[in-house]
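Hey, resending since the last one bounced:
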Amino acid sequence: MEQTSFLKRAIKGIISNIDEKINTYTTKMDKLMKAFKDQSIAQIDITVVHVYDMVQEIRNDLKLGTLKPVDGASVQQDEMCLENTRVEIIYEISAWINSIGDEVVGISKVNISY
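The structure tokens again:
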């Protein structure tokens, strides 16, 4: 009889300890899941802002397509630069035009074109 009582208490203690550990792990897992969701939401917000900026750039580029040429404007062969002059500045401008990101706020290709 004593042995049965001891076994019941021992099993009850083990089960109680297991329940406590399960609750502890469940609480920790809930905290981790919340942190993961919060991080995911922050990343989504950053991505949305980035996509919005890209859409604005595309919109501005499309506005450039609606500009009409100035009457009488054309290339005048006799007033062109000599060969190999301004090569460096043209290279820098081309590299800047083709770059992605790293633009100074308020200085965009569209603003410069105006």
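The longest helix spans residues 2-65.

Sorry for the duplicate.
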